[in-house]
Design a protein that fits this description.
Rossmann fold, globular
Length: 233
């Protein structure tokens, strides 16, 4: 499927797909590694279990949507080699950077999708994922663009369909309006429960949190990140 065709058919991706020209190393890794790791939903039949997409057939599979440079995704895949990780990132330059770093790390428990995450979610079988991370997504800060935010009733229902009961949806952002937006939408959705126990829980980073470039920028600019965790009932 061509890039232009994917752009016309997209539902939840509204940003640009390319930035400045890639460095030769990144371009080479992108061309060589993406075909090996990419989930081709336009040609592959959805499996009964997402574990069959990995050579080691992991008992658990996690999904990260919009991984940027991949700092967190690579960190988690390194921490948990027995878990399969699927990363979604439509921005070409970020995907290229990630593929170069993942290749250097020698990780074998990764698969990727380089288009609209809603397409992948709709392709996945029900009850097939053990966790979803949505970390520092595009906040679309102007109120007239809030409808473009990835967290919405339709996508939360997509999450609920693919997540196994008892699994976690984790959301991090440094934009107050998006944090409140997410809390309100998850509170109104029957399949999710916020797991905060104390008033400070939302300020506490996740276990072994490596930080991200976006988080570092938030700190530099004086914004306080929030780390939300929701249970798929």
């Amino acid at each position: 499927m061509s890039e232009d065709r994917r752009s016309r058919s997209t539902e939840a991706f509204f940003g640009r797909r390319r930035g400045k020209a890639m460095k030769p190393r990144q371009s080479g890794q992108y061309e060589s590694q993406l075909p090996k790791l990419r989930i081709a939903i336009d040609t592959d039949t959805a499996p009964a279990s997402m574990s069959v997409l990995f050579e080691h057939a992991p008992a658990k599979v996690r999904l990260e949507i919009g991984f940027g440079g991949g700092e967190h995704l690579i960190h988690e895949a390194t921490r948990f080699p027995d878990i399969g990780f699927i990363g979604v990132e439509p921005f070409v330059n970020s995907m290229a950077k990630f593929l170069a770093n993942a290749s250097e790390a020698g990780l074998e428990n990764l698969r990727v999708y380089d288009d609209d995450a809603t397409q992948l979610l709709d392709w996945m079988p029900a009850n097939s994922i053990n966790g979803i991370d949505l970390l520092y997504p595009d906040p679309w800060p102007k109120k007239k663009h809030w409808k473009r935010r990835f967290v919405n009733p339709q996508n939360l229902s997509r999450f609920a369909r693919v997540l196994k009961p008892g699994s976690l949806f984790r959301f991090a952002s440094d934009i107050d309006t998006y944090v409140n937006w997410t809390l309100n939408h998850c509170d109104e959705h029957p399949d999710f429960e916020w797991l905060a126990q104390t008033a400070d829980d939302w300020r506490t980073p996740y276990e072994a949190w490596p930080g991200t470039r976006y988080e570092a920028k938030a700190f530099r600019e004086g914004r306080t990140p929030a780390y939300l965790t929701f249970l798929r009932k």
